[in-house]
Amino acid sequence: MVVLRLRKRADAIHELECLEEARELEGALERAVHLCPIFGSHTASIYDRRRVTVSTEDTPGTAAPPVESRRAGRELVLEVVFRPLSNLLVPVFARARVTPTAVVLANAVSGLVAALALARGELLAAALLLQLKTLLDNADGQLARVTGRVTLTGRYLDTEADLVVNAAVFAALGHVTGKPLVAAVAFVALTLVLAVDFNVTELYRGQRGLLAPSPARSGGSVERVLERIYAVSFAQLDRLVRTFSERRFARIAVAEPSPERVQEARLAYIDGLAVNALANLGLTTQLLLLGVCLALGVPEAYLWIAIASLVVLVPLQIRAERRARAVF
Q1: CA-wise closest residue to 104 among 69, 61, 58, 151
Q2: What is the largest CA-CA distance in the chain?
Q3: pTM for this predicted structure
Q4: Which of 185, 163, 133 is nearest to 229 (CA)?
Q5: What is the pLDDT of residue 46?
Q6: Whole-angstrom Cα distance, residue 61 to residue 98?
Q7: 275, 42 in Cβ contact below 8 A?
Q8: Taking Cα atoms as reference points, which of 287, 266, 284, 138 lies closest to residue 200?
Q9: Most confident of the ranges 2-11, 141-150, 263-272
């Protein structure tokens, strides 16, 4: 894994002050286009793909709070429960020199063991292991930022490990419920929901100049292999979601000659409320709901929750198009 690090300068930039200034400017923009400024932040992604940033910590073992770029939405369960808990683990991992890759692999193992327990009918054990998986999944990115070990290899590995775990969990759900077809549909539905969450949030950030740069390529063999897997498993889905979104918007803006009006409509088309709604369909929330269903002894109920999550996208798309039309 390639380590990307920036050493501190003597005349260090005050990041928090710059961040506050950026938030004030963005708040003014959001109010101007009737966005929803009361919500906080969320890392939107398919399978919780994180917006990576490079830590400015000079020493990898230093257990300082993670520095993150401002996020577009807020997944309440993540922010209220799992992020505070993962924040407690990060300094421990940093002092023990545990690598982010090790944490990613540990969360994947936790998820796969949870799937095995689920297939064997050990529902409570599976529920607890899935929450452990979520906790570790939220710690690995923060650990990478704190220790200055943010890499493309880690990002690909984290994303693809989540895909494998989710596939195993839904296969186990199909086995334990005796409804493999429903489980397969639920898996596809959740994958689409997470893809929409990721891509809509990235579009929202891009339209508002909030995108952070990705780590540089290392050119290593592991990175290239993971990148190819990513291209096969996610890139086409990302392209499908963005193409659908753009074509729906183009149907609304087809007769609009003003670039300024088109840009205003784009800001209305993907707004803060939509991003926050999608954030709360994220993987952390999904695995918590699955854990609750398992603890209550009704694993089949979660399959219908996952399918219902896909249905929620319909009114969100209708709302987005109405908002864009209102601008024109």
Answers
A1: 151
A2: 63
A3: 0.77
A4: 163
A5: 52
A6: 9
A7: yes
A8: 266
A9: 263-272
Rounded distance between C-alpha atoms, residue 77 and residue 51, angstroms: 19
Place of tokens 């994958």: 191
Q: Contact 157/230 with Cβ under 8 angstroms?
A: no
Q: How far apart are CA 55 and CA 142, in angstroms?
A: 9
- Label residue 9 left, alpha or beta by phi (over 0 means left) and psi (-120 to 50 means alpha): beta
Decide: helix, strand or coil at residue 319.
helix
| Integer angstrom CA distances of residue 143 from 84, 107, 153 | 14, 13, 15
Residue 85: name the closest of 18, 158, 137 by CA.
137
259 CB neighbour count, 10 Å cutoff: 8
> CA–CA separation, 268 vs 323, rounded Å?
6
Question: Which helix (H) or strand (E) segment is 132 a member of?
Answer: helix 123-147
Write down the residue that tokens 């603890």 correspond to. 295
Joined together, the tokens standing for residue 192 give 């689409």
